[in-house]
Amino acid sequence: MSTENKQFTVSVYTENNIGLLNRISAIFQRRHINIESLNTSPSEIESVSRFTIVVNITESQMKKIIGQIEKQVEVIKAFYHTEDEIIYQESCLFKIKSELLFDERQIQNIIKDSNARIVTVNKQFFVLEKSGRKEEIDLLYRELNVFGIMQFTRSGRVAVTKDEMKISTLLKAFQE
Amino acid sequence: MKETQTINNNSKSTETTERISGSEAVIKCLLAEGVSTLYGYPGGAIMPVYDELYKYQDKIHHVLTRHEQGAAHAAQGYARISGKVGVAMATSGPGATNLITGIADAQIDSTPLVCITGQVGSHLLGSDAFQETDIVGISTPVTKWNCQITEASQIPGAIAKAFYIARSGRPGPVLIDITKNAQFEEFDFKYEKCKGVRSYKPVPKTDETALKAAAELINSAKKPLIVWGQGVILGKAEEEFKAVIEKTGIPSAWTILGASAIPTSHPLNVGMVGMHGNYAPNILTNQCDVLIAIGMRFDDRVTGNLETYAKQAKIIHFEIDPAEIDKNVKTHIAVLGDSKDSLKKLLPLLKSNSHADWHQKFKDLYQIEYNKVIKNDLHPTKDGLTMGEVLKEINIQTEGKAAIVSDVGQHQMIACRYAEFNISKSNITSGGLGTMGFALPAAIGAKMAAPDREVIMIAGDGGYQMNIQELATIFQQKVPVKIVVLNNEFLGMVRQWQQLFFDKRYASTEMVNPDFVTIAKGYHIDAKKVSNRQNLKVAIKEMIECEGPYFLEVRVEKEDNVFPMIPTGASVSDIRLE
Fold first, then answer.
1. What angle do CA A127, A133, A135 make, to 5 degrees?
2. Domains in chain B, ordered, with CATH?
3. Strands A75-81 and A6-15, how do they pair?
4. Chain B nearest CA to A52, separation (Å)
5. What is d(CA B457, CA B509) in angstroms, rounded to the nearest whole number?
6. Touching check for B140 and chain A: CB below 8 Å?
7. What's residue A172's pLDDT?
8. What sign has the CA pseudo-torsion B242, B259, B278, B389?
9. Which of B24, B33, B52, B68 is catalytic?
10. How far apart are CA B121 and CA B253, in angstroms?
11. Alpha helices of chain A — where are they, by DSSP H?
12. Which tens digits make up the pLDDT trace of A98-137?
């Protein structure tokens, strides 16, 4: 097994309970592992939450951590995926001075080419939204940064897997 | 108490509920779970529950310890000797944080514990109120499960879940934090035992193919070695385990927490593995062809350097916790499941064998260890008393029937090495966490859970003083535990390391101790000190014959070392005899 660090995306299906985020993040913290990004949301199953966590670690570390996550009472199932096993997106927002939209004609081209979307415009600023892969967002950031960005924020990664995840079957099996 | 009836329309059955307070519900839940004894310490945020304990004192015995840490360890001792869930209770803030060491100890040693803490009123949460602390946050990494309750109606469900989680699968500690308003609030009480939690599968399914592959590998092995751990005891699999080893004739060694699952004198019992374990099983770990691990977790104190641990062997791991598979040692065959069930299914697949030549190797190495170490420990010729001869005398006088509750350090290693066990669940010690101060309160819990058994606490002069206040609990509750302090006026294990690895720089390990006999007598506990060999036998006899609690201080040689020893980072086969 590779001893090199790789980027892994972790999907964790859980009950929706207070304190579970703490319990899961503590598993990484205890092993001195930095979480690159973390997102929690409802999942395809009612009342089941889904965590999407991105980390850079070795595969052997990853496997052990999956074991520790699954061991938590309120975790239904945890998976880890490599980049080619998932479809993923991140989302970001830029707040930019409105005058630049008119003074710097190039900005309009950047927006068009990057498939970014203008969420709102007023006299002072406009807000640009862009969803995509990390590199696309990085590129857009670099291009806009030249003109000045008032605020920037990026979401955690959300991902779905190419393969099926049989959580409903699992939940049934648990109750047998 | 007002009774109301609710009618369940679907099933047309009637269910009785009663309108009671949250705090009374706590007691009723504990009673419904079969709790007859709990350990704790009152305080502001848990007072409503204590008020109910007062009313229910004929049904449930609350033991007032002298420190919340004592309550947690006493509950652990209670659980470890009985296999039942131990219960500890404390108030918010410092009361709750004082439980933490015991909870962490129970987590790493898989001890079923339910801890109940009081919390400030829910309107005060997060306001830095008096004695408010985030105990759910603090206890998260050291509990199997925990939760905070802010409404009385959540109490029965949470407590039922807590007991279910604590005792099922790989056991562990849980904590329930109940805000004061939830304790006061009245609600319609009804209790239902928890039968399952949707997201939690306590016992993984045993894969029959893996089981068959394991049996084949065991049958074909020429030099197999079994290392068993506490999983055999927690799974109540002692008989099944014995049947497996007796049929296959495989030499079997134990981890500290596995001790006492089969008698010490069993011919197939080849001793303890690990840092201060026996010579033969450590050396031969690196010569066996198949290593069969049963209910153990390859702790670093067991394996030494992993790079050189049993590399020549194929490894089979019988284990209830999937997270333990390949965590430290890569296994060839993992058999998940409950130890009792797996071993029962394994037995008919196994072939009878005796492995006579292989056993001879263990005998030869034992002889070397006997000549170099054991003889001097048990039959010393020097003047000073050894810890080993105290254990030998206890073995003789209790006929190996005592439960030994040890603390942490040199005396613990000596106790585990030399105590003779004939009854399961007799070695109660802090294994994974190595908590000094564990033994005295744990012995209280053990004796209360098993009043018919002789419970002997063995501690060093260091650890004894870490929870020495529990002598008051022993006195108040009249718990007839036997307290043996092996006093070398040093923090002996640290001193041993300083001698071996820090050029004898004895930094802060020498102890100037009080008069322990006077202290015990101050608590009205019969006490004696013995400093020479000719008085040892009589002193131990007097202790065993005493009907009440008894304190015995044995002055042992100041600078004795525990051997064999695997230095940190060394291989198991590089175990030193001197």
1. 90
2. 21-189 (3.40.50.970), 208-361 (3.40.50.1220), 383-556 (3.40.50.970)
3. antiparallel
4. 18
5. 22
6. yes
7. 74
8. negative
9. B68
10. 52
11. 20-30, 59-71, 98-103, 105-114, 134-145, 167-175
12. 999 888 889 999 999 999 999 999 999 999 999 999 999 9
Catalytic residue among B55, B57, B59, B130: B130
B137 touches chain A (CB under 8 A): yes
Among the residues of B221-350, which ranges form H helices? 231-234, 238-248, 279-285, 300-303, 339-346
CA-CA-CA-CA torsion sign (B91, B92, B94, B100): positive
pLDDT at position B81 is 98
Q: Active-site residue among B18, B47, B84, B131?
A: B131
Q: What secondary structure letter does DSSP report for B565?
A: B
**Spatial CA neighbour of B48 closest among B23, B66, B81:** B23
* Reported ipTM: 0.92
Q: Which of residues 122-151 of A touch B (CB under 8 A)?
A: none
DSSP annotation of B532 reads S
CA atoms within 13 A on the CB side of B306: 10
Give the whole-angstrom CA distance, residue B422 versus residue B453: 12
pTM > 0.90: yes or no: yes
Helix axes B22-32, B155-167, angle to 10 degrees: 30
**Mind listing the pLDDT tens digit for each residue in B138-163?**
999 999 999 999 999 999 999 999 99
User: Of B543, B520, B530, B442, whose CA–CA distance to B486 is shortest?
Assistant: B530
Active site residue B131: yes
To which residue do tokens 């054991």 refer? B374
User: Strand (E) positions, B267-411?
Assistant: 269-272, 290-294, 314-319, 333-336, 403-406
- Collapsed DSSP state (helix, strand, coil) of residue B405: strand
Size of interface A-B (CB pairs under 8 A): 55
Of A14, A30, A63, the CB nearest to B199: A14
| Residue linked to tokens 């029965």 | B156
For residues B122 and B136, the answer to whether their CB atoms sit within 8 Å is no
Q: Does the annotation count B367 as an active-site position?
A: no
Distance (Å, rounded) from C-alpha B411 to C-alpha B486?
7
3-state DSSP call for residue B104? helix
Is A175 in Cβ contact with B322 (below 8 Å)?
A: no
Q: Which residue of B has its CA nearest to A15?
A: B199
Asked if B144 and A64 come within 8 Å (Cβ–Cβ), the reply is no
Chosen for mutation from B142, B199, B327 (greatest number of chain A CBs closer than 10 Å) is: B199
- B126 has a chain A CB within 8 A of its CB: no
* d(C-alpha B77, C-alpha B445), whole Å: 5
Sequence length of chain B is 578
Structural domains present in chain A = 6-81 (3.30.70.260), 89-154 (3.30.70.1150)
> Does the distance separating the beta carbons of A75 and B199 come in below 8 Å?
yes
Asked if B307 has any chain A CB less than 8 Å from its own CB, the reply is no
Q: Are B198 and A76 inside 8 Å of each other by CB?
A: yes
Q: Which two tokens stand for residue B550?
A: 């008894």
| Tens-place pLDDT, residues B370-403 | 999 999 999 999 999 999 999 999 999 999 999 9
Nearby residues of B288 by Cβ (< 8 Å), 6 or more positions away: B221, B223, B224, B225, B310, B312, B313
